[in-house]
Task: structure prediction
Amino acid sequence: MNRKELHPDSSPQAAYGARLRSLREAQRWTQDELAERTGYSSVHVSAVETARKPPTLRFARSLDRAFGIEGTETFERQWRELRQGSLLEGFPEYVGYEGRAAEIRLYEVGVIPGLLQTPEYAEALAADAVRRGAITAEQAAERVDVVARRQAALARTPSPLILAVLDESCIRRPIGGATVMEAQCERLLRFAEQPNTLLQIALFSIGVRRPMNLPVYILTMPDRSLMLYSESAQQGHLERETASVVPMLTAYHQLQAEALSQAASVAVIEQLRKGTP
Result:
């Protein structure tokens, strides 16, 4: 029998399927036997376990009845967290690799990237998402916590090399008021002082010479393999194929050539912090 390897860290849906398989095997049930107990087909059970099909509320409740699960660790609760989770599918898997990367290259548009955010900036972003009804207060707390954990993962020896190119919109867009933005500018300046970092601002005036218009994260792992993470509005995507990553790495180097030097970028941030145009 072919047994598909599961990767629970790749997404919330994959974690759901991995937990289902683990509990089923602990009961020594086959997929056919669990299917009989839930009223679903073994094909359906297999598809949920391997994250090829998302679970439904009805299926989650049938699992809780089959396993006799009650309280806070039910499949129904996990289903609700999966359905309402604030993190894009694919992002948790990326974060796991980011915390082990030897080099991190990032390009961000519109907001300061999470690795460089102050807690107050992260909280302001999350609070606005709650105000718009996009997420709950609990999910907002999760987002802020993820930012803190990502930053903490980089405080290791040896330190990863972090190269950050920020679109000018990142520093021009006011988030959380003047006090929050002033502290955020200070955070960027401290980042630029570190021996393992490089900070550059890509000005609006680059125009058509800008090779990328969407946020991109490129990781170099300790074995020198490359990974590319990008996002759409609904999903994150982690690309491991070298043939796909190398062209984006080339585009990133082209972007760096067009962006301001670190010294000039620091000067722009200092002017912004002082309130001068």
